[in-house]
Amino acid sequence: HLLAADAAIVEHTFHVGNLSVVRLGQSQVITAVNGQFPGPKIEARDGDTVVVHVVNGSPYNLSIHWHGILQRLSSWADGPNMVSQCPIPAGGGRYTYRFNVSGQEGTLWWHAHASFLRATVYGALLLRPAPGASYPFPRPHREATILLGEWWNASVVDVERQALLAGGAPNNSVALTINGLISASSEALTVERGRTYLLRIVNAALNYQLFFKVAGHNFTVVAADACYTDPYRTDVIVIAPGQTVDALLRADADPGRRYYMAAQVYQSLANATYSATATAVLSYHHHQQQRQETMMPSMPAFNDSAIAERFYASLTGLLLPKVPTVPLRVDTRMLVTFGLGVTPCAPAQTLCNRTLGSVAASMNNVSFQFPTAMSLLEAHMRGAPDGVYTRDFPDRPPVMFDFTGAAAAAAASMAPTAKGTKVKPLRYNETVEVVLQNTAILGAENHPLHLHGFNFYVLAQGAGNFNAHRHVRAYNLVNPHQRNTVAVPAAGWAVIRFTADNPGVWIMHCHLDAHLPFGLAMAFEVEDGPTPDAVLPPPPPDYPQC
Ligand code: C2O
């Protein structure tokens, strides 16, 4: 591909290795990129080519995913371990990721996509308009990146091991972080009164959906997952793991005071016990700060689902000439149920609690198994999926039970969860609608479902059972917002629609990290298109082998 005249190549080298950091008075060795935590920021403009040379000097095999990058015709650079590639070997393995930014502006991020390593291996990916183009809102005075994360006083690889062995949820993190720091009382953002700032907010936490507020200030949301939204004014931002929000903040408060920004856990579980808050300070330039306490925002209750519902329901897509409108013709309709259940350990399964069994999450009763010999994408390229995956991911769940409450639990225990590596094959340019139904079998949890390789329209979402007759009338087919990660409410549903215009293999999975090894995933296999510009090129020469 020829670059547009003013497009650039944005090149980075990521050295992955050990880094010693002190948090909560304790020293901890983490896996990090270039000795930085959070990792380096990648800044590109629409139309640029991004090239990242990864040198894996860490003790773990890993891969890096560019979360939300569409990867048109570059599925090889997507990054999920054993889906688009074998891992980059520990102790010095290398792989160069190369992809174009095409038609994307806003905030995305990158993270390790192998075991729990993304807890510390992540960073921001900031996409700005092409030269000569501008934001569809007044130019902000400055920008600030806000990466929300979680912290464990332990090796995160051990935390994952423990979760798998215990057959349950991982140990809670000990704290939430803002830009890698725990409850900092140092300045995170210094503003000038009367100016407008663009906050680029990323939820990089492993297990928690979050509320985010800044005391004394309001936001105008302008984008979600690097897709522009109609300006939406709110005092609280709701953000699930994997999601991003771009919001304008006008510095219009009393400049003589200091203000906390705060992120706090949102959990719909009625009996949730974990409630952590991370803070950082916003203050005003050139002002004698009065000797007053820093103002803390009043945070919602940890389980205030009404706030979360209102936030998501208020987002609509900004209609721009260059943004395609929602496809009205649907070629393939799927109903995908998903949730957590328990299965007995398989005889050869090493990380499994022999008494309790293992937590097996599933989609349409298939618990996704990552292949071990070859990545899905490589098998796809060879045209020989035999032994790696099968093309029989079901369009509907095997049993059409009442998805909520005790009936669901009973029905689920009768409908066995099968382990498998099943993909849903799609024709090039096919339009797909998926009703995502959270069955909430084991604990009522919101599951943020992330689709690689595409943005999808969120047509509707709601609580309880999806009902085709009732809910179809609620679809927004005029200006639904687009994203790559949708937080499907506990015991609720969401309807998404996308066009399969990107050949390759693309995983869709829960972005609560523990649910990935439990199998809360499936994959789409999109065939090549009819013209040369719609054919996935061969893998790069340094493509890792297993
Ligand atoms: Cu951000 Cu498959 O992940």
From TrEMBL:
Keywords from the UniProt entry: Apoplast, Copper, Lignin degradation, Metal-binding, Oxidoreductase, Repeat, Secreted, Signal
Name by which UniProt lists this protein: Laccase
Database matches in PROSITE patterns: MULTICOPPER_OXIDASE2
Family the entry assigns: Belongs to the multicopper oxidase family.
Record's cofactor remark: Binds 4 Cu cations per monomer.
Native source species: Urochloa decumbens
PANTHER family: LACCASE-7 (PTHR11709:SF9), MULTI-COPPER OXIDASE (PTHR11709)
GO MF term set: hydroquinone:oxygen oxidoreductase activity; metal ion binding
Principal subcellular localization: secreted
